Fold these 4 entries.
Entry 1:
Amino acid sequence: MSLEISPSGQPFGASITGLNLSMAVSSNVVAEIRDAWLQHHVLAFPDQAISDDDLERFTLLFGPFGDDPFIAPIPGRKHIIAVKRAAAETAPIFAESWHTDWSFQEAPPAGTCLYGITIPPEGGDTLFVNQHLALEHMPDTLRQRIEGRQAIHSARNAYAPTGFYGAADRAAGRSMDIRPSDDAEATQRHPIISRHPETGREALFGCAGYIIGIEGMEQAESWDLLTEIFRWQTQPQFQYRHKWQPRMLLMWDNRSLLHMATGGYKGFDRLLHRTTIGSA
């Protein structure tokens, strides 16, 4: 088995061919994939006819399953979420804002796997932005203001009963099985500048949305700073745009990236299955 790793031609991201993920993968190949993952941050595996069992097996090659709160798993599974949208759905696009998955957890996940099952003929790209690059190019004056500071992360704005995906969103007829909860009010603190546990590279971690404040700062002052960071960290020169194909598996590193969904496929069904790679 010989892997072919093809960089995307964008600031980061690559595709991998030359393997069949419906079959067992050797430890040597897993090591190659992990090295490529850490180097390119987003990996696409096109033309993979895999089952939910295969998706779960692949996920566990890179860490334990992560805990996915607020979204019900598909029937018969504990660790697979359906990211879906019906052709006639009118609710806002799910996850159409910059974030890193579940940054409000005490131990946020290492990565995410997403497998394309029903892919519209147009639209639905996923955008990523590299937080190593954003930090490395950040002006010293801005970096000095965030050095050593802790951000306050929470799911309240998204998944509390009064949040974006709360009771009003359910009433709009969303096809995804989102379960808002008072648990979303909890908070966790994480450094704004983090060090990647495998590569040692520093990166910005998280952004406004799941970040609701900065420890030791008044709310207005912290929001001004978070807005400035957000504008810097999401710039186009740090981005990769991923275009989907049916039967494509994607994996990305939540420790080094932000990502967001896009629309543009009104009138078409869309279905992907997602797993979370937990922190080791």
Entry 2:
Amino acid sequence: MIIPAITVVQGVLVGQVADQDALTGVTVVLTPDGATAGVDVRGGAPGTRETDLLDPVNLVQQVHAVVLTGGSAFGLAAATGVVSWLHERGYGFFDVGLTKVPIVPAAVIFDLGIGRSDVWPDATMGYAACMAVEAAVAEGSVGAGIGATVGKVGGMATAMRGGVGSWSETLADGVTVGALAVVNAFGDVVDDQGRIIAGARAPDQSLVGTGALLRSGLSRRSFADTTGQNTTIAVVATDARLDKAAATRLAIMAQDGLARAIRPAHSPFDGDTVFALATGVYEAPPLVTLGAVAADVLATAIMRAVQAATAAAGVPAARDL
């Protein structure tokens, strides 16, 4: 059975690699022929590269990949390998007279607190992710999500495993909207009914939830060791034709899906960032339609990420409880 992932969107490819020992990795969303892009950053602790150029007032109109990576700020080096892979194949921004320049924004999660803290994604790993492109998108403890965790209000003592998830929906007119998320949240991941799928655990392994622990008067000292060590980063993509302003609005609307699936979202300790890509194959339906569907598929992708995750380093996954 073909799972409706982000790669159903025409012009979108996904490659993933991971270091099983260090528990860090790279997920690259490739649009080699170019895609109009926007971004929305709402978390209080983001780690990003080349997001300013996605502002609609700025010159560059298209990107050729988006890199989602572990390793905190160190992991941004993975984007260099993706640039090299694209350049070798002749992809890039308009010929400046000397060469073509691939445009590759990136965002990171903090995964140094699990696995190893002295190993992180680099240019070699970014290049390898491009070489690992597959038709199907692997989910769970893979790629940039291999070291992801959620429910860290009490540090790793309350945490559960996050991961990579993807989903898409094709509309009646043939336009597809897809999402891919790397879920490494401070808060909990909940289902459509608000029930916790993966989140903060009590000592008896019950899912007590981040909100309950915060309301109980949990001191800041209790979660100080995870400050700035969380984030959910995602890409939503469509094969509709959009300009940069519309792509930016698509990313903004998609954030609603993140807020529905993660509680709390956009905290001071998260770097929640959503990129939007439009590959321009079809005439666009109303933007409100695309945005509403983007929020839905992103919420589903986030839920799928934790449902597919597996235990590691003593941190349990949803399937274990």
Entry 3:
Amino acid sequence: MNYKYTWSASAGNRRLTPYLSLLLITGTLLFLSSCKEKKNTFEQKKGNSPTTVDVMIAKAENIGNQVEVNGSVVASEFAELRPEVSGLLTFLSVPEGALVQKGTVVARVNSADLEAQVSKLKVQLELAETTEKRLKQLIDINGVNQADYDIAINTVNGLKADIQYTQTLIDKTVVRAPFTGIIGLRRVSAGSYVTPSNVIATIQQLSQLRIDFTVPESYQNYVPKGSNVQVLLDQNTGKRLSARIIASEPQVNQSTRNLTVRAVLNGGTATPGSFVKVYLNEGAEKSSILIPANCIIPEAKSKKVVLVKNGKAMFVNVETGSRQEEYIEIIKGLSVGDSVVVSGVLFARQDAPVTVRSVRDVKVVSK
């Protein structure tokens, strides 16, 4: 009896299995359906909730109206040392990176043939001068024609000119430092055949550095000769030095519409060719509304900022002025006391409700 009962119970379980499986599947589908409905309902509620933003209260700040432009460091004197004649380098003295005095011989080109030519001309000149002296004695007693004496004089003068010309060619074979300065890297070796197109080395005078920079033509009235500008040599230290404007190009570049200006740096050291920042002072300090630059929403033909009024976001058009590091001047569109959205700008929508999380204080440093 136990054996039959066990077998029948097992069979009963087998018959109930399909019904239990169907019941479990149906329950699972109903549960998932209810969860999905709840999730959609939650997202819909979240979409209607106010956007959380941070704002700043627009206020007038006294700022120095400065313009920032790019510039480069230029040596007070710069030259490429080249030979004036072609030939073999017989002497080369280039102390790389060292200070050399004006007139120091840096290189010599082989001039043996020219020196031999000078020796030959001197012998001919000696003979021509002897002949001229003899004819001079004869011309005094009418012993020779005046034309013969004139030919002798002309021969002497011609030989002297040839000697002077050849000596000039010999002088051109010597390369000297044109001024006192730091000599650069050597570009040729002794024994090389050089031409005037070859650069032996460069030399720069670093005693009084200059700053070259360009400004838009609209700012040319702010860079008069003799005025001072501020120069930032090292971005890490942030220290600015003064430079005095000594000259500017007489005309504006027609391609870029910029004016090139040169100033002399008052102290400081830098490597010629280095990038620097130049700050021009447009005038006295003025009162302006400044906001962070990331608050601006650029569009095709306008710029906008987001304000908070009556708990809703409002987009307004603004006109911007000069930019000062991380901040930008607002010329038109904002009033003192307006609540400007500084974070959460991308999530704000016109006339949509917003919640102000905090009010930030933007500190503007006058420079």
Entry 4:
Amino acid sequence: MAKAKLEDISQAQKERLFHIDFKLRFLGTVSRADLASRFGVKAAAATRDLSLYKELAPENLEYDTKAKIYNPSQEFTPLFSCSQSQVLAALGQGLGDDYVGTHRPLITAESPTQLNPPQLDVLATVSQAIHQKKALHIQYRSLSSGLTSREISPFALVDNGLRWHVRAFDRKRERFTDFVINRITKPRLLKGKLLGNHESKEADIQWNRIVEMHLVPHPQLKHPETIEQEYGMQKGILKVQVRAAVAGYVLRRWNIDCSENHELNGAEYHLWLKNHQTLYGVENLLIAPGFKRTTDTATGSHGEAVLTTMEWGDVE
């Protein structure tokens, strides 16, 4: 019997095969139930799809008889290619993980090019760790420490507007922090170590705390009503709720003046944080425009300490 060829398979079945390939690569597991749930096929049809995938890529998956699921083998090589935007949309929003083909816009549209989209092989291992609640051993480069080896327990991806991070517990420093995806190399799942309660998502205070920011047009604007309309403000105010762990990224990305007396003068400052006190206890404010904290060492014009701007998101 002739071996099946991908080009001879129907588009509908290609979609299901792509789904298998995607889940193996980025989640590290796939089952008949996944196919049945996503595509509404019977168990027998799901079995045939998995058998066909194994025929097309026999070295890609292994069956766990105890758990009754398929896992990627050490020799796994993707059967399908996909773009960074497709992968990130699928992981972040549940979109695009079952589409095979060329992505084209429906109308003319342009978005700024990201200079450093995540490397998919690294992202795949990181997302597997998140999905399977496992720790990772990584090689990591930072501006402060250079190249180091780390064990981290990741639980979420974070897009700060410029690049992608992974939120994780750092076993070396025993704290939660963000790691830039493209600074990670040689990620490896640690299958034998169970995650402790202290390194779970539920233990990350900054992640679980919700901060409500009240944003208003910057008082120095000549026509504040323009900003009110642009941001859909109600009675001149926009209320935004974000996790404390990402508050600094939001404030920096949108150039929100965080000074108590709206003292920043640049033309880029269209918004002012009216309820400055909401940032009390938020940790990643080093990059928040104009934010001042009284416990740091650099002294500002009024005697209070000033947080100087570092590289955006260089938390770790």
